[in-house]
Amino acid sequence: MSTVRSYIDQTQQRPVAAPSIMTDDTQHEVRCGMCAKELYVDDEGYRLYMDAITSGLDNPFRCEVCREEYDDLAYEG
Which of 30, 46, 66, 69 could link 34 by a cystine bridge, Cβ 3.0 to 4.6 Å? Predict the structure, then answer.
């Protein structure tokens, strides 16, 4: 189940966009936090993903389509 919400706290981190194509630098597969599409991140991005998941926080990664949708919803407030 995906939950879409706008953030009132401006200090909260916005979702991070990640490419959907594996490259030499982006070897780790993660999932979009909204639609579960496969995304690929580097070592640091994967560490961020794992830290968020183990801490019980929201998945910080979004595919390009979901990120645009998130931005539109945040703008409409």
Answer: 66
